[in-house]
Amino acid sequence: MDDLVIGVLRVSLALFIIVDPIGNVPIFISLTENMSFEQRKKAFQTATIVSLVLLLVFALIGQQILEIFRITPQSFMIAGGTLLFVIAVKILVFGGWEEKKTLPESIGAVPIATPLLVGPGAITTTIVMLRSYGLQATLVSVLIIFFTIWLVFHFIEKINNFLGTTGAIVIARIMAIFIAAIAVGFMIEGIKYYFP
């Protein structure tokens, strides 16, 4: 039982750092700034559900999926890093992720659910933690993390109001720089695997 608790704590901490729902609040707000309250709520509901399903699937059969399609975690890093970099550049240059005639559900699925919440880092971490701590600890940790994400989305308006418009813009731009740096890191790690 003690091993399970320790495993859950370690896996939850690792996933929380990778997913970073609190640090991404300005990005989430920026992505949905032109939506009504109901549209934003729908986008966040979609993001939570899609993220949870994706991570549960990869926790249960992630390794098998990668093996079937002959995809390496490094390929995920390059692809996910490229997409994250595009998002970061859009936020830095245009001040947000703007897509015309895009449904809230689409924004919720991409880019919020993936790759911002469940990207190559979260997928790889889940597969590695599954090997290290077992299925039970990994599944419990995934549920804990997505309860945390649900809480963040539930109180996101209050968090955003606390930050203020200027604060949210500044943090969003700073976070975009960090996202770009993370994206470059993903791509470099992936490329180094193929070209050591």
A few lines on this structure:
The chain has 196 residues and is mostly helical. The chain has one domain. The mean pLDDT is 82.
Helices and strands, with pairings:
Layout lengths: L1 H18 L5 H7 L5 H32 L4 H22 L9 H14 L2 H14 L1 H20 L1 H39 L2
Helix pairs in contact: 1-6, 1-7, 2-8, 3-5, 3-6, 3-7, 4-6, 4-8, 6-7
Report the principal-axis shape. globular
Helix content: over 70%
Nearest-angstrom radius of gyration?
A: 17 Å
**What fraction of the residues are assigned to beta strands by DSSP?**
under 5%
Using DSSP, what is the number of strands?
0
Structural classification: mainly alpha
Overall domain count? 1
**What's the N-to-C terminus distance?**
42 Å
Q: What is the mean predicted local confidence, pLDDT?
A: 82
| Succession of helices and strands | HHHHHHHH
Largest sheet: none
Give start-end ranges of low-pLDDT stretches: none
Enumerate how many helices there are, as a single number.
8
What does this structure look like?
By secondary structure, the protein is mostly helical. The protein has helices spanning 2-19, 25-31, 37-68, 73-94, 104-117, 120-133, 135-154, 156-194. The longest helix is centred in the last third of the chain and has 39 residues, at 156-194.
Pick out its properties:
globular, mainly alpha, 196 residues
